[in-house]
Amino acid sequence: MARTGSSRSAFPPDWWARGAWIVLLAYLLYACAQLELTPARFAAGLEHGAKFLARLFPPDFKRWELLVKGMVESLQMAIVASALGTLLSLPLALLAARNLMPVWASWPARAVMVVCRSFHPVIVAILFVKAVGFGALAGILALTVASVGFLGKLMTEAIEEISLKQVEAVRATGAPFASVVSYAVVPQVFSRFVGFVSYETDANLRNSTMVGIVGAGGIGGTLFAAFQRFDYDFVCAIVLTIIALIMAGEVLTVQVKKVFKA
Amino acid sequence: MSDALEREWRRFTPAERIGRFVVYFCVVAAIVASLRSVEVIPEFLYDAPEQIGDMLGRMWPVAWRHYPEGVHGPLMDSLHIATLGTVLAVLMAVPVAFLAARNVTPYAWLNYAAKLILVAARSVNTLIWALFFVAVLGPGALAGTLAIAFHSIGFTGKLLGEALEESNRGTIEALEASGAPWLSIALKGYWPQLRPAFWAIVLFRWDINVRESAVLGLVGAGGVGMALDTALNLFQWDRAAMILVAILAVVVAAEVATTQLRKRII
Amino acid sequence: MSAALSVRGLVKEYVPGRPVLRGIDLDFAARGITAVIGPSGTGKSTFIRCINRLVEPTAGEVIFEDRDLVKLSRAELRSARRRIGMVFQEYNLVERLSVMENLLCGRLGYVAPLKAWLRRYPARDIARAFELLDIVGLGEFAQARADSLSGGQRQRVGIARAVMQEPKLLLADEPTSSLDPKTSVEIMGLMQTLAQAHGFPVIINIHNVELARRFAERIVGMTGGRVVYDGPAARITEAHLKEIYGGEDWLE
């Protein structure tokens, strides 16, 4: 051990941080034990995985009509849900903005948004399937609910971050509420909103590919059926198409954001 | 000859206006095209309120007594799946993020390869990954954990890569100029700058994964979703309601926990 | 007395056909401070950075410790860079780490990465770090985070970090440009003291001619990518300065 002559230590230990790491490590080991995740199972899993990959390739596009039908349906569901979600979120977000609205309006609006996003879209889809039957409508409604929850939250936060001076200035001119909103609030938040709507459309596109698993329309149902039939080549084809579609969606989103920031 | 008195104020240049118009047009066209092909069976729609009423009626009273033996275990399993999956995702995402960041890895093809992996990972939903892993490994928590891990790499890696790209260039330059090996530069130069964003991203992802892990059981990948699936298949709506309430409670608790932790750590 | 550093025919073109450095030939002795002065954009910073190849030279040789740095592989270059310390205008510390950690970053070229991460530096390095901290007047700040320090304090840490490398040459790229006049004098004095105590030459890229005259033994004046003055600091005249800073070199 070095004696530096003085009693200064180069790196005083941070006991809180060390304690936290130890607790985390202990929990992780406990969780593995609870779930019976052993290294042996892991290794066996890797082996199975390798064999499985061989069964996936090459992808089989023979039933491309079914594939395209499902993808188009998913795309449509995503678009409608995003449009509907945006339409419903705008007034809701405005109501929920604490800097513009009184408490009796903002609290219920916020509560609605919290409930909307607390449940996974798949769970909401199950409930809607029960309510309106199998098919794309259930999926659209489920995605809309999720959109309202997330879009609403993002929009409300954006509204709450605006500079109130502009709002005061427009109010001082005696303008009616609608004008205050369109001249003082909207310009400040518009480009951020475009970003949010793009992000949410992207998210809806992702989710629309899976709600079909519970019968709510889209490519998810086709995919689930293929899994159950052990038709893994087709599964591969579907997954590759999903990846391509979502990549295209992300690129499009970036372009749209550029147009509106410009 | 420019007439200064008659200059109009235009908010956007012609190019910008065209761009905006094109976007608006495409959006409206897409919506209209989509709406027209959505099948809405009117009978189902009229039926809906009655169906919802029926469902809610069967859900009440909520089967609270079902919780200890039927729900608590699987619910905790879901939490473990979410946490282990997030940890695994982070471990895998960090090296990929380093590869994807343009300032860290100056080879464009590596950047693209890493970004491609990340896009592919996040394009496939957790539920779809779960289907895949259940097919490979059989039903259970291992499939669920891996599903969460592989999907989360996509977002975690992307956000970490973006945070890395914002590192201070000068700091790294100084370490390079002193002859430090690459690993030391990564650990002593990039990592300290990455740390606050790192924890924010991890907490954010964990929060989302808690929600995701609850439904994995619907396809057999472990956790409380399996109990939900059973209850739904047997039309035990009161038990299903119990499970949903439990999931809601855990999700809200996780959100509160992440908000608190974020204040402490960052 | 052989030169510690020899630069031969150094050329740098960021854009092909438009050289920023048009063939620099200089020798630097093993002791003493050399100030490189000249107008903005004339390539002073490029010159300094070409020495340790933070910027890759287009042509020429940089001979340090009997090896041409320009021809070294990346691994050999890393090894050579360990013995060249550098001080930056923006300090370039790791902001979130403590002063002590920043100092020890100077040893990263000598310590294995994992040991460095676990903070197992050799005792000798840690002792030296404390010594240097005292010499630069920051003895109380060992555990302070780098971003809590003032500009002048941060530059002291930067200098100490460079000296921790036990360098055979110290480069300084506008070390005082972000500091107030009083602090600038302190920093220049610190570099002078340390250079004399440890026996390494210093090459400073600097704007302020007064500081150059006061602290450097030798001045190299650059303009238009060429050396137009190279001599003792005491003998630089107004005429020389006019040639360096004035003149329409953009017509060249």
Describe the structure using short key phrases:
heterotrimer, A: 262 residues, 10 helices, globular, disordered N terminus, B: 266 residues, mainly alpha, MetI-like fold
Write the layout of secondary structure elements.
The complex is a heterotrimer of chains A (262), B (266) and C (252).
Chain A: H1 15-34, H2 39-56, H3 64-96, H4 103-118, H5 121-132, H6 136-160, H7 164-172, H8 177-208, H9 219-228, H10 232-261
Chain B: H1 14-37, H2 42-59, H3 67-100, H4 108-123, H5 126-137, H6 141-165, H7 169-177, H8 182-215, H9 224-233, H10 237-265
Helix pairs in contact in B: 2-10, 3-4, 3-6, 3-8, 3-9, 4-6, 5-6, 6-8, 7-8, 8-10, 9-10
Chain C: E1 5-15, E2 18-28, E3 33-37, H1 44-51, E4 59-64, E5 67-68, H2 74-81, E6 84-88, H3 99-104, H4 113-117, H5 123-135, H6 151-164, E7 169-173, H7 181-198, E8 202-205, H8 209-215, E9 218-223, E10 226-232, H9 238-245
Helix pairs in contact in C: 5-6, 6-7
Structure report:
The complex is a heterotrimer of chains A (262), B (266) and C (252). Chain A is mostly helical. Chain A has helices at 15-34, 39-56, 64-96, 103-118, 121-132, 136-160, 164-172, 177-208, 219-228, 232-261. Chain A starts with 14 loop residues before the first helix and ends with a helix. Chain B contains ten helices and no strands. Chain B has helices spanning 14-37, 42-59, 67-100, 108-123, 126-137, 141-165, 169-177, 182-215, 224-233, 237-265. Chain B has 266 residues and is mainly α. The mean pLDDT of chain B is 88. The longest helix of chain B is centred in the N-terminal third of the chain and has 34 residues, at 67-100. Chain C is α/β, with parallel strands linked by helices and 252 residues long. In chain C, strands 6-7-8-3-9-10 form a six-stranded mixed beta sheet, with helices on both faces. In chain C, α6 runs parallel beside α7. The model of chain C has no long low-confidence stretch (mean pLDDT 91). Classes of the chains: A mainly alpha (262), B mainly alpha (266), C alpha/beta (252). Chains in contact: A-B, A-C, B-C. At the A-B interface, α1, α2, α3, α5 and α6 of A face α1, α2, α3, α4 and α5 of B.
